Amino acid sequence: MKLLGAIEAGGTKFVCGIGHEDGSIIDRVSFPTTHPEETMAQVFQYFEGKNVEAIGIGSFGPIDPVIGSPTYGYVTTTPKPFWSQYNLVGAVREKIDVPIGFDTDVNGAALGEYKWGAAQGLDSCLYITVGTGIGAGAVVGGTLIHGLSHPEMGHIYVRRHEQDTFAGACPFHGDCLEGLAAGPAIGSRWGRPAVELAPDDLAWEIEAHYLAHALMSYVLILSPQKIVMGGGVMKQSHLFPMIRTKLQELLKGYVQHASLTADIDSYIVPPQLGDNAGLAGSIALASMALAGK
Ligand code: ADP
Ligand code: ZN
């Protein structure tokens, strides 16, 4: 089987690995995201002599994933020091001469779950991560959604919970979804890290409220056949039933489909690829690049 390379480029850490076209991962390493030159030197060192036939990069964003655009392959307007306007694909291409697939980390994860995970055999799915930030990617008809750039579904506005007075923490929008419901927002609102809050804390009722509002918009706009929810905050597995129930309440039976009524437990699910979702996503991007797609 052909060897494929994967780079999961995160704002906190980079994970590199190699795998096969069936999504299996045979090796992985991880190192902190520091200065591009230092971090990329570690990437090149890892892939040296590995003879991969293609590389997939799932990156933190915003990025330019539009082939043909002058800044294709760049990390664009990130506030992360040193990485703004960094030509990530260009840097890899200079050292490793193989087809390169490049997309957001969440688009990669969506593709991985679609090909090998929770959405296998379906035509569409949405992957959302609730972690340091909130981001989502979607596959529709087997294709990852792009447009002007890539979707930014974490920054939509949601209806405020009536018991929530937290101003919101998004540096761009204040109380957008990410500003209200990402891990750091939970930490700031309650004065301690999300992981320390008890399962019956009001914090989770508010969290589920916001995430269910977001899912309602995604369901109404994209009609995905499966919603996969990952990221550190979703390790609180009691959120899943709360989100499912709230989504049903919000939709009020308007979208009549068994996935939203009788089968909602198998409609909104954790990543089947678990902690490998990101790396498997990058393998999926590599396999698309190899196929010339
Ligand atoms: P990243 O988004 O940087 O890739 P994570 O998905 O792990 O990383 O998200 C980190 C965020 O998730 C932090 O804000 C942290 O507080 C929160 N988090 C991590 N683990 C848990 C947990 N078990 N319960 C609740 N929140 C968590
Ligand atoms: Zn925002």
UniProtKB/TrEMBL annotation:
Top class in the EC scheme: transferase
Keywords, alphabetical: ATP-binding, Carbohydrate metabolism, Kinase, Magnesium, Metal-binding, Nucleotide-binding, Transferase, Zinc
Pfam families according to UniProt: ROK (PF00480)
CDD domains for the chain: ASKHA_NBD_ROK_BsFRK-like (cd24067)
Reported cofactor(s): Mg(2+)
InterPro entries according to UniProt: ATPase_NBD, Carb_Metab_Reg_Kinase/Isom, ROK, ROK_cs
EC number: 2.7.1.4
Catalytic reaction equation(s): D-fructose + ATP = D-fructose 6-phosphate + ADP + H(+)
GO molecular function: ATP binding; fructokinase activity; metal ion binding
Family as reported in the entry's similarity comment: Belongs to the ROK (NagC/XylR) family.
Protein name: fructokinase
Organism: Paenibacillus durus
Taxonomic lineage from the root: Bacteria, Bacillati, Bacillota, Bacilli, Bacillales
